[in-house]
């Protein structure tokens, strides 16, 4: 059975913490509705007095990506909230600059009085103090422990995970503690898995600091670690209390990591949001130049797309798998090249090109989509072919343990129809897969 994903305009309720009516600092009309972006002063108007985010019901807002301009003079103090709607496990994603300077925002989601911040050797000198201050400011009863892990995908394993449990047990954390993931996707995935498993589940907050983590890995509750034979094979679905995206943290992110995150942003356009893809084609230079409003918009739109998919299919019975466009090939590249050699987004970029190539060979998409995919990824300085060491056999061996193999049948996410449409299916001509592998491998 193939599961199809079609583009949809999203209903996104931006909401403010203020009970009073709000004059938006920016609003712009679109063909489908209008978007209000709230200023930070609106965003945190009542702080801790407000037990939880109060919806600003003026508009359940439809967002049209193509209508969103990159503002001439970006207002760096603009914030947005995207909801992940999962019933009792729903949570907000706060997006904006300077959010780590808003202690109330973080503290309202801390349960209990004890916090364990999980981070790494690169991020701790940059942001650990700031986060500790945000967690404790005005609230001396909160105590913060931290565990600083080695940095790198190659450490996303059981041995490193044990360091988190060691710290939690040595410092006698109990069920009422909160784990905070401070870092990129590696830290988020490991900390989330540790939170899911420690005492069978403790509270958990995501503070993503890479674009990859902001637009993808911190949202949706997939957590886990790698096994030497395959990526992310051990893990759990576990949702955080909130995701706090302080876009200022991107200022220290290396260019290569920024580009890696852009690969996942492009993915949303390809699989379900043609208007966003078009916006990206126009605004890629602004993203690469780290224009704050372009970045905020791309993060918001990506989170909205992911949140909608996750709320429809939290445990990946079908639709959610479409978020893995290019990932079967990409994971093979990451595993084949050795963890940490190719960045996740780089591998996904080359993997998406392969998936798009295969979709083209099957006659499911127009050649122009293939061309536009290559162009946009090249514009973002991302690779469009796998490394030379990837042979057809290497791909086939790694693909065999992919999580999307069911009853021996490899299901793939492939594009089908106009831009922004894809299917998750095992029903395709095997020759097309072989042809794609041969076209992209030297042997
Ligand atoms: N759970 C999910 O749904 C999901 C989705 C996508 C990716 N992932 C996982 O995410 C991981 C990749 O995440 P990533 O790309 O964030 O890699 P990463 O976590 O390794 O971070 C990349 C590098 O940037 C450094 N860094 C992080 N923030 C920084 C900052 N603000 N300034 C300077 N340096 C900073 C990190 O220390 C690291 O060296 C992979 O393991 C992938 O499997 C998970
Ligand atoms: Zn990914």
Automatic annotation (TrEMBL):
Protein name as annotated: 3-dehydroquinate synthase, chloroplastic
Reaction catalyzed: 7-phospho-2-dehydro-3-deoxy-D-arabino-heptonate = 3-dehydroquinate + phosphate
Family to which this protein belongs: Belongs to the sugar phosphate cyclases superfamily. Dehydroquinate synthase family.
NCBIfam families: aroB
InterPro entries: Dehydroquinate_synthase (IPR050071), DHQ_synth_AroB (IPR016037), DHQS/DOIS_N (IPR030960), DHQS_C (IPR056179)
GO biological process: amino acid biosynthetic process; aromatic amino acid family biosynthetic process; chorismate biosynthetic process
Listed Pfam families: DHQ_synthase, DHQS_C
Subcellular location: Plastid, Chloroplast
Cofactor requirement: NAD(+); a divalent metal cation
Keyword rRNA-binding: no
Annotated Gene Ontology cellular component terms: chloroplast
Organism (species): Rhynchospora breviuscula
MF annotations from Gene Ontology: 3-dehydroquinate synthase activity; metal ion binding
């Amino acid at each position: 059975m193939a599961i199809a994903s079609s583009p949809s305009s999203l209903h996104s309720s931006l909401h403010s913490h203020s009970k009073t009516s709000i004059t938006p600092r920016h609003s712009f009309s679109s063909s489908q509705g209008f978007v209000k972006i709230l200023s930070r002063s609106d965003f945190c108007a009542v702080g801790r007095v407000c037990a939880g985010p109060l919806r600003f019901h003026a508009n359940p807002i439809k967002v049209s990506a193509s209508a969103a301009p990159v503002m001439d003079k970006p207002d760096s103090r603009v914030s947005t909230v995207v909801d992940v709607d999962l019933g009792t496990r729903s949570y907000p994603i706060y997006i904006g600059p300077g959010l780590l300077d808003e202690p109330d925002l973080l503290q309202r989601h801390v349960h209990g009085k004890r916090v364990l911040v999980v981070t790494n050797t690169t991020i701790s000198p940059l942001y650990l103090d700031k986060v500790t201050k945000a967690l404790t400011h005005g609230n001396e009863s909160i105590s913060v422990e931290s565990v600083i892990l080695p940095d790198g995908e190659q450490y996303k394993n059981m041995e490193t995970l044990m360091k988190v449990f060691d710290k939690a047990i040595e410092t006698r954390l109990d069920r009422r503690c909160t784990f905070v993931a401070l870092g990129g996707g590696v830290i988020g995935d490991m900390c989330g898995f540790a939170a899911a498993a420690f005492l069978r589940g403790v509270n958990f907050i995501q503070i993503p600091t890479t674009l990859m983590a902001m637009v993808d890995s911190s949202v949706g509750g997939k957590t886990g670690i790698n096994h030497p034979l395959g990526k992310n094979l051990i893990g759990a679905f576990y949702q955080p209390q909130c995701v706090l995206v302080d876009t200022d943290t991107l200022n220290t992110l290396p260019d290569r990591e920024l580009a890696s995150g852009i690969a996942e942003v492009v993915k949303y356009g390809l699989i379900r949001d043609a208007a966003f893809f078009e916006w990206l084609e126009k605004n890629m230079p602004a993203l690469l130049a780290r224009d704050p409003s372009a970045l905020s918009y791309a993060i918001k739109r990506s989170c909205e797309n992911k949140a909608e998919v996750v709320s429809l299919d939290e445990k990946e019975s079908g639709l959610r798998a479409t978020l893995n466009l290019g990932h079967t090939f990409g994971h093979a590249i990451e595993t084949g090249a050795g963890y940490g050699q190719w960045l996740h987004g780089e591998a996904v970029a080359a993997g998406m090109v392969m998936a798009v190539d295969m979709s083209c060979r099957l006659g499911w998409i127009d050649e122009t989509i293939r061309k536009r995919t290559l162009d946009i990824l090249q514009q973002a300085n991302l690779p469009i072919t796998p490394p030379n060491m990837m042979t057809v056999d290497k791909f086939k061996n790694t693909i065999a343990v992919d999580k999307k193999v069911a009853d021996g049948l490899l299901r793939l996410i492939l594009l089908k129809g106009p831009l922004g449409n894809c299917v998750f299916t095992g029903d395709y001509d095997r020759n097309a897969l072989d042809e794609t592998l041969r076209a992209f491998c030297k042997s």
